[in-house]
Design a protein that fits this description.
The chain has 565 residues and is an alpha/beta fold. The protein has 4 domains: 208 residues, Rossmann fold (3-Layer(aba) Sandwich); 64 residues, no CATH class; 82 residues, Orthogonal Bundle (Arc Repressor Mutant, subunit A), CATH 1.10.10; 144 residues, no CATH class. The strands form 5 sheets. The chain has a 5-stranded parallel beta sheet, sandwiched between helices. It has a 5-stranded mixed beta sheet with strand order 14-15-16-17-18. α6 packs across α8, α15 runs antiparallel to α17 and α19 packs antiparallel against α20. The longest helix is centred in the C-terminal third of the chain and has 21 residues.
């Protein structure tokens, strides 16, 4: 049996993937399109985990002087002999990722940036020696790589802003060839600064850094940047006219980031995983980049890797572990009643129409809820469904994985919100100990209206009941002195919820039913009959509870009915 190639789990280095014979989906056609539609500066914005960093690594190894040309043997770009002869291995390349530029304050972030650029400058230490440079040039290069007493790069702010420009000029003089600059995750420093409170200072620094490198740099042949958000030109790209931006709304280049359906099918056939194609599509497909259906590559590779070790494993949420997902939390916390209804519609598989602003600054994000809709779209939590209509974009949740993230964040938000008003929550829970049916019904209705519904209206009745079961269980979990059991074996079956209130020796049995067509009385009656027929109170009596209250609770949408025995 032929040995299958390994999957490149988390690998973003093109050279290693090719040299060590990992499975690679050929995206080298991007090089041809980039050269034939050349612009001075090109920015690609895509959600995280859509292959941006690997793409930048591929570009570096294609263009850089001294790279191994055999890395591209058999790939799409190798068919373009003229382009390969003219461009492959012909340029000095400055390549950095700004993903790591962060800090609790501006000085820490600057130190990180100096470290990244200084380390890249050190890559050329072997060629930029004193005998190949004038004294002035040599002193400028030394400023880029000089260390302070703490062994950290010691560039001044002015030298840092000029660092790309300085290194470009030195490399052009050495090679007698203009330079290519690749900047991956260009917007991360701004996002981290926005979160940590030094956004204005970082904007000024990045404006100087990019302005010097990309606008006034006669040594530049071309530059490519990637990121998640299209930062407004007025923010950091002031005065750049020869500057093209390609987002998920643009048809150009849309096949080069993420996996197409044909590419995923080819991978599944190679690993003999085709019988899992439907579930992979359901969980990880669903992105629409200007009419092209796209899978998240990180998820597909991660799940295929898991299938190689255990073919029976179910799909997992791999994307959630790559970020804090605080964008969704911020969005939910700002949502008023109309927006909450729209979120419920999205989770239920529906769509909403919104005006999308593709060009934002991070300072814009908190100004109104509409900008957060734009951010959710840009970062991949929502995707376009159909064409724009009158300036509005129809948005949907792309797949089951992202729906799961929404549900998880809503549940965490709801738990925090209810815990904040501990007095009201305790009064609601105490009503179960006191058999106060009216207070229980009023309180549970209040929480149902407050909660963003995450039930699936097309799901089976049991799954709808699970939604209400989960809300009530979460509310009960805040009570000290209660022993709470969910789906516990008792009597002749498994009860929905059992509670033992230790201080009062009160036992509580709750059975929840979904009231089809709002038939509350029938659903409550069925719940109480089930408690009695299956002797659900038996475990509570065995544990010494002196008083037992039995509750049948029927729910329909955001209404409920409570009956007690």
């Amino acid at each position: 049996m032929e040995k299958k190639k390994s999957l490149p789990m988390g690998m973003e280095n093109f050279e290693r993937i090719q040299n060590e014979d990992f499975y690679y989906i050929d995206k080298t056609g991007l090089i041809k399109d980039l050269l034939e539609n050349k612009s001075y500066v090109t920015l690609f914005t895509r959600p995280r985990r859509f292959g941006k960093t690997l793409t930048m690594s591929m570009l570096k190894y294609f263009f850089e002087i001294g790279s191994d040309s055999t890395l591209f043997d058999g790939l799409e770009i190798a068919k373009e002999k003229r382009l390969c002869d003219e461009y492959r291995g012909k340029f000095p390349v400055i390549s950095v990722s700004l993903k790591g530029v962060s800090g609790i304050n501006f000085n820490e972030a600057k130190a990180m940036l100096r470290g990244i650029i200084g380390t890249e400058a050190l890559r050329f230490e072997g060629i930029l020696q004193k005998d190949s440079l004038s004294e002035t040039d040599y002193q400028q290069y030394k400023q880029l790589i000089m260390l302070d007493n703490n062994c950290e790069f010691a560039m001044t702010d002015g030298q840092l802003k000029n660092s790309f420009l300085t290194l470009s000029r030195l490399l052009q003089r050495h090679y007698n060839q203009k330079v290519i600059i690749l900047i991956d995750e260009y917007d991360v420093p701004l996002y981290k600064a926005y979160r940590s409170g030094y956004y204005d200072e970082m904007v000024e620094l990045m404006r100087g850094l990019f302005g010097q490198a990309l606008k006034t740099n006669d040594s530049l042949y071309l530059a490519v940047l990637t990121g998640c958000l299209r930062i407004s030109k007025e923010s950091i790209f002031t005065g750049m006219n020869n500057f093209n931006v390609y987002t998920v709304k643009d048809m150009q280049y849309n096949q080069y980031f993420g996996f197409t359906d044909a590419e995923v099918t080819e991978m599944l056939e190679y690993y003999s995983f085709m019988e899992r194609s439907d579930v992979i599509k359901e969980w990880y497909d669903g992105y629409h980049f200007s009419g092209l259906d796209i899978y998240c590559p990180w998820d597909v590779i991660s799940y295929c890797h898991a299938l190689k070790m255990n073919f029976s494993i179910m799909p997992q949420n791999y994307w959630v572990n790559t970020s804090s997902n605080d964008i969704i939390r911020k969005f939910i916390s700002k949502a008023k009643s109309v927006t909450k209804s729209e979120i419920e519609l999205l989770i239920d598989g529906g769509s909403v129409k919104k005006k999308i602003r593709q060009e934002l600054t991070y300072r814009d994000l908190d100004t109104n809820i509409d900008n957060l809709w734009s951010l959710l779209f840009t970062t991949g939590y929502l995707t376009q469904f159909g064409e724009d209509n009158g300036g509005l974009t129809e948005l949907v949740i792309p797949n089951k994985e992202i729906r799961w993230i929404f549900v998880e964040q809503i549940q965490e938000w709801f738990a925090e919100e209810t815990a904040r008003d501990s007095t009201t929550l305790e009064q609601f829970c105490k009503a179960f100990e006191e058999n106060n049916v009216a207070a229980i019904e009023e309180g549970f209705t209040f929480y149902l209206k407050k909660m963003i519904s995450i039930r699936d209206t097309n799901a089976k009745k049991e799954r709808k009941e699970n939604f209400y079961h989960g809300i009530l269980l979460g509310l009960f979990s805040n009570m000290d002195g209660w022993i709470i059991m969910s789906n516990a074996e008792t009597g002749d079956g498994y009860s929905d919820i059992l509670v033992e209130a230790q201080d009062t020796e009160v036992g509580i049995v709750v059975e929840l039913k979904y009231a089809e067509n709002a038939a509350f009385d029938t659903a409550c009656k069925n719940a109480l009959e089930q408690i009695a027929d299956r002797n659900y109170e038996e475990r509570l009596l065995d544990d010494g509870m002196k008083t037992i209250y039995r509750y049948g609770i029927a729910c329909y949408k955001k209404r409920c009915r409570v009956v007690s025995e």
